Amino acid sequence: MNLIEVRNINKYFDQPTRMQVLADLSFDIEKGHFVSITGKSGSGKSTLLYLLSTMDTAFEGSIRINGEEMQGKRNRWLADFRNHHIGFVFQFHYLLPEFSVLRNVMLPALKLGRYTPDEIEYRAIDLLQLLGVGDQAPKRASLLSGGQQQRVAIARALINDPLIIMGDEPTGNLDSQNAAIVFDLFRKLSSERGQTILTVTHDDDFARRSDKVIHLVDGRIAG
Amino acid sequence: MKIFTNIKLAATIAFTHMRARLKQTVIATAGVAFGITVFIFMVSFIQGSNDFVQAVAFEQSPHLRLYNEIQTASSSIMDRADPGAVNVVSHVKPKDILLSLKDGPQIVQALQQDPRVAAISGAVSTQVFYRLGSSTINGSINGIRFEQENALFNLQAKLVDGSFKELSTLPNSIVLGVGLARRLNVKTGDRMEVTTEKGNNFSVKVVGIFKTGLTDIDKQQSYASLNTVQRFLEVPVSYITDIKIKLHDMELAPAMSRELQAKYGFHGSDWKQDNAALLEGDALRKMIVYGVAVTILLVAGFGIFNILTMMIYEKMKDIAILKAMGFSDSDIRWIFLVQALFIGLTGALLGLVFGFLAAYGISKMPYKSDVMITLDHLPVSFSAMYYVTGFTFGILTTTLAGYLPSRKAAQVDPITILRG
């Protein structure tokens, strides 16, 4: 079963001059797969990820996620869709510095409003413990080390049980030990929970061990 | 329901932001509070003084006045002799008319029955010279029936020495303004002389001294009984020159003035005409107060605008991350709008409290004035209107100041920031 269906995507940048970044891309991603997007810098791999993330809406073609067409949807609808179905992990961890670790993890769930705040807090602590940072919960996010922050960010991405977890070089800023932890975690999520993992990565080792690799060269799929 | 929880969540994020920037938040709130405080204080104080000056002036001026005036004839005798021709008569002299109001006492009686009239008084007013020894002072004398005039102007309260009662019982008795008495150096019980325009001299006895608080009146005016003044002028008892009317509703005065002028053929004027300069001054002072308050609030508004704009630049990353998490543009807008609203609301409420305290404080301050003799504390006006206006003003400016940056925040493109 295909979770993501991409058909004939074209994407242009208008600044500084009009240039084509993605050219007529079409591919499918199956549910529960661990997919890596690779390519040299400037090949359009991040652009592709952000198109699939539903945050970039300026493109030609069709993206269907979980049976829903993303083209031409309104901001509020897309935000709600992200909230329900997509979890993000970024290269530079990107926690909200004024909030506690626990609060950071709880925020997407509070926004979703599926559970009561008490249940959300319980689930958030559970997730933090699963990721080995349970004891950091009451601390301010800005006080954590890089590896710890990234694990908190992953907990935040998981709190709403999303269909897809997207990562923009999630291990790019971590030492090899932390990178291995994150990789194993992603592997486990896709095989045990059936969550689809979609990451942009430079790391060849990381890419080699995924179910599928989308390798971009100058905005086209190579091979 | 979903919108409500969204705003509630936005508000909790907003409060976390504000707590992290407590100092800036407090300063912005203080700015708004200061603006509103100054507004409330100034409006209360200036309106208080306006009200006081008006009260003093209006107490001495009837709502409506009917009188006769010397005027130039509108048509010459030539027009009547040779109608239709072009008649040019240069330098026409004013018509000599009697200043008395024809059938004055009857009109006073008739108007007493009018339901709009609260009090009415027919009086004789004329120019005289007050003389004592070699000094001569020009002034005016009012012949009144004390009961009627008192009903209009509350004369009894203005008496500082002697009594008005003797006016009607003692012939040739007079009550002088306090300034006039001082200039003539007379006291209650002293005798002096009054000379009319026709040159008749009368010896009068001072039976009382009054003080209105208006220097112009106190320095040159006196009261005597109607009969006494009529005798001075050698006119019959039906002779009165002024009909002064107090209405139940003073706003009716201009319309009623026109009505009575048309009905009786007299001249008339109302309190608005008589005090045009005073009312104009009030309006101008009020404009100044509102101008100053709006300026202060605009400055406070710019403060909020600045703080939020700076905060949004600092928080670009956070905004992007919130959007990635699934916060919509309007959720982001609420986060910053809530901050502006909270600052505005707290500032406005504090401003109202401090404004009230400042106004209350100044109203207890003793203050003596030579011009306003009856004033012992600074006059301050307390009206709920100022507080409602100040609050509305404050909320409006801060909302506007918050809306623009929050819209900018909502428009932040998350991708450019997340890609670095």
TrEMBL record, chain A:
Pfam families for the chain: ABC_tran (PF00005)
Alphabetized InterPro entries for the sequence: AAA+_ATPase (IPR003593), ABC_transporter-like_ATP-bd (IPR003439), ABC_transporter-like_CS (IPR017871), ABC_transpr_LolD-like (IPR015854), MacB-like_ATP-bd (IPR017911), P-loop_NTPase (IPR027417)
ATP-binding in keyword set: yes
Alphabetized UniProt keyword annotations: ATP-binding, Nucleotide-binding, Transport
Keyword Nucleotide-binding tagged: yes
Every ABC transporter domain range: 4-222
MF term (GO), any: ATP binding
Protein's name in the database: ABC transporter ATP-binding protein
Higher taxonomy: Bacteria, Pseudomonadati, Bacteroidota, Chitinophagia, Chitinophagales
